[in-house]
Design goal:
By secondary structure, chain A is of the alpha+beta class. Chain A has helices at 89-104, 112-134; strands at residues 3-9, 12-19, 21-26, 29-33, 40-53, 56-69, 73-78, 81-83. Chain A folds into 2 domains: 3-84, F0F1 ATP synthase delta/epsilon subunit, N-terminal (ATP Synthase, domain 1); 87-134, Up-down Bundle (Single alpha-helices involved in coiled-coils or other helix-helix interfaces). In chain A, strands 1, 2, 3, 4, 5, 6, 7 and 8 form an 8-stranded mixed beta sheet that branches. Chain A is globular, with a radius of gyration of 16 Å. By secondary structure, chain B is α/β, with parallel strands linked by helices. Chain B has 2 domains: 4-21 and 252-294, Helix Hairpins (Orthogonal Bundle), CATH 1.10.287; 31-251, Pyruvate Kinase, Chain: A, domain 1 (3-Layer(aba) Sandwich), CATH 3.40.1380.10. In chain B, 57% of the residues lie in helices and 14% in strands. In chain B, helix 1 (4-57) runs antiparallel to helix 5 (218-294). Chain B starts with a helix and ends with a helix. The chains are: A alpha+beta, B alpha/beta. The interface between A and B is medium-sized, with 25 and 31 residues. Strand 5 of chain A pairs parallel with strand 6 (213-215) of chain B.
Chain lengths: 145, 296
């Protein structure tokens, strides 16, 4: 018994497959979805989606979005999503440094700019975090690439 | 008839132009391929988002679901998003969009305001004396959703605050390399009955068997998904328009190259005639001179 899981972001399909369980960062906390789950529509927080099939687990970062759960299918509409194995750590780190510098320079906290920078910072922190924690070949440091 | 020298120069310049047009054709050919890929890539998200919206709409009590879905009783102002290119040399691509817009909205009863995406469209609209309230020019060659989402947000904002009561989208939908169709779509209020921008979506799931549980609640989710979906439609329209623009440019440039080739052929023929005539005249001169000398 499997459930189909589709993760799409605005510019590409990130993952499609039949899996055993999906763990989502839902609005009300982490939720594990098994086949034949009741229909749910939830917003997603920043976090990771874990998809398990057999003994194998794949992990994706997700920077907000929406998930629709049906008994036979889970559709994740992500604002941005990425397999942790694909994260470009050097780039994420550069983005983090850039955002931190911009914040240190002092941006009025009620402007669009501030929100944008803050979102960028959250996103790069999430990617760095996920890369460090979930990458399979973790012997190399995420900072030395 | 022009002198041989002038004709030589003319042939050279036509050849140079044909080189430029051929280069532009090649560039457009590769760009159109990329643009088509981009359209295909977003289609899956758009399809899925559309499905989710439909599923929500199939729930009971949908009439008062969301202000962006509600039809207004009286329409006092119309907003039109016009998507064109930033550059010319694309055949009739830009002027087609503007002509279509004029045909469709010039006789509109209520006042019409425009948002221009693309420099050519903006210039043409302003020249025709239209009211352009915003202009999004110089989009990057392969825009990301973030580059375009501001356009959709502005449209949603204008609609929500009641400044306008209807929003239309004029763009060029890409059929194939030789065929692009200028199209108008109603963007807001969002109509769930029609097929929307997503033409060929497939229903994989049979739809919800029971009512949804919403987390945190339905309102929050709809607030998030509907404006986003609106922006997504704009994004897709931009991508389709770009694919169309490159295709139109490619065809226009190919025609230009062909014409240049033909012109060079004709000019070359004329030039050879002039040159031969010159040689014949020279020989006649020499022969005449020699005979005159011999006769002495």
């Amino acid at each position: 018994m499997t459930i189909r899981c589709e993760i799409v972001s605005q510019d590409r399909t990130v993952f499609v497959g039949d899996v055993d369980i999906v763990v989502l960062p839902g609005a009300a906390g982490e939720m594990g979805i098994l086949p034949k789950h009741a229909p749910v529509l939830t917003t997603l927080k920043f976090g990771v989606i874990k998809v398990r099939k057999g003994g194998k687990e794949e992990v994706f970062t997700v920077a907000g979005g929406i998930a629709e759960v049906q008994p036979d299918i889970i559709t994740v509409l992500a604002d941005a999503a990425e397999n942790v194995e694909e994260i470009d750590v050097a780039r994420a780190d550069a983005a983090r440094v850039r955002a931190e510098e911009a914040l240190a320079r002092g941006v009025p906290s009620d402007t669009d700019d501030y929100l944008k920078i803050e979102a960028a910072l959250r996103k790069s922190n999430l990617r760095l975090d996920a890369a460090r924690r979930y990458r399979k070949n973790n012997n190399r440091s995420p900072y030395s690439e | 008839m022009a002198s041989a020298r002038e004709m030589r120069l003319r042939i050279k310049s036509v050849k140079n132009i044909s080189q430029v047009t051929r280069a532009l054709e090649t560039v457009s050919a590769s760009k159109v391929r990329k643009a088509i890929n981009a359209v295909m890539a977003t289609r899956s998200y758009a399809t899925k988002a559309w499905q989710v919206l439909r599923h929500v709409a199939e729930q009971p009590g949908r009439n008062s679901l969301h202000p962006l879905l509600a039809k207004r009783n009286s329409v006092n102002n119309t907003l039109v998003l016009v998507i064109t290119g930033d550059r010319g040399l694309a055949g009739a691509y830009n002027s087609n969009v503007i002509r279509f817009t004029a045909q469709r909205f010039d006789s509109n009863v209520v006042p019409v305001k425009y948002i221009a995406v693309g420099r050519k469209g903006r210039d043409l609209l302003i020249r025709r004396g239209k009211k352009v309230i915003a202009d999004f020019s110089n989009l990057p060659a392969a825009p990301s959703f973030a580059d375009v989402s501001a356009v959709g947000r502005l449209a949603v904002e204008e609609f929500k605050t009641g400044v306008v009561d209807e929003v239309y989208l004029v763009y060029t939908s890409f059929v194939n390399m030789g065929r692009q169709i200028t199209t108008v779509k109603k963007l807001l209020p969002l109509e769930l009955e029609g097929e929307g921008l997503v033409r060929d979506f497939e229903h994989k799931s049979a739809g919800p068997t029971a009512a949804y549980e919403y987390e945190p609640d339905m309102r929050v989710i709809l607030d998030e998904i509907i404006p986003r979906f609106t922006a997504l439609q704009v994004y897709q329209a931009v991508l389709e328009s770009q694919a169309s623009e490159h295709a139109a440019r490619m065809v226009a440039m190919r025609n230009a190259t062909d014409n240049a080739k033909e012109l060079v052929g004709a000019l070359q023929l004329a030039y050879n005639k002039v040159r031969q005539q010159g040689i014949t005249n020279d020989i006649l001169d020499i022969v005449g001179g020699a005979e005159a000398l011999a006769a002495k």
